[in-house]
Write a structure and sequence with these properties.
199 residues, alpha/beta, Urease, subunit C, domain 1, 2 domains, 4-stranded mixed β-sheet, 4-stranded antiparallel β-sheet, 7 helices
């Protein structure tokens, strides 16, 4: 199915998606004129290539992501450090579900690629199943592991023929994304599929 994704603040970079790849990138009006049969998804804000999070191992293997049903005992925020490792040692089966929930948090922040060496099967499987790309970790990292790392690392531009992998943020421009952060994500697309949509 052909789909055109267009964001209000960046109609000049609309994306035509055909299955799992980008068929064309250009002004919305041009894409609609060429492929009027395509389904159209309209988003607020800007459409970007998506983000690389350089803290894959720290977020997916070094933290425990509680199930919402565990809120009474563990809270709702990721649990880092030794406490997370104690949870994993007490019940190794929690690793897979935690990694999947961690990947969902990444997708909700417009992340389409992670970096760092994932060592555990649970994290590797969760990343692979979601379709996240695995990139090279930058030499210099600032701050600690976060779903909103600073500085933000935007992937290179959207390329026709390339994978349909991008994110949309409800901000007026890239400066707004830097200022307000990736929690402004409204949609993440990987492999042509909408893997996150803000409700």
């Amino acid at each position: 199915m052909l789909t055109i994704h267009v964001a209000e603040a960046s109609p000049e970079t609309a994306v035509l998606v055909d299955a799992d790849h980008i068929a064309a990138v250009g002004p919305y009006d041009d894409l609609v004129a060429v492929r009027p049969e395509a389904r159209v998804r309209r988003w607020p804000g800007i459409l970007t290539p998506g983000l690389l999070n350089p803290y894959g191992p720290e977020l997916l293997e070094g933290m425990y992501h509680p199930d919402p049903r565990e809120a009474e005992g563990f809270g709702t925020e990721p649990i880092p450090g030794e406490r997370a490792q104690r949870i994993f040692r007490a019940d190794p089966s929690r690793r897979a579900a935690s990694a999947r929930r961690g990947v969902q948090r990444l997708l909700a922040h417009g992340t389409v690629a992670v970096a760092g060496e994932l060592r555990g099967r649970a994290a590797v499987d969760a990343v692979r199943r979601a379709g996240l790309a695995v990139g090279r970790r930058p030499e210099r990292l600032h701050g600690g592991p976060s779903f909103s790392p600073s500085p933000l690392i935007l992937l290179p531009g959207l390329i026709p023929g390339g994978p349909a992998r991008f994110a949309v943020f409800d901000v007026p421009d890239r400066a707004g994304l830097v200022r307000l952060g990736p929690s402004t994500c409204v949609a993440t697309v990987i492999g042509g599929r909408l893997v996150f949509r803000q409700r």
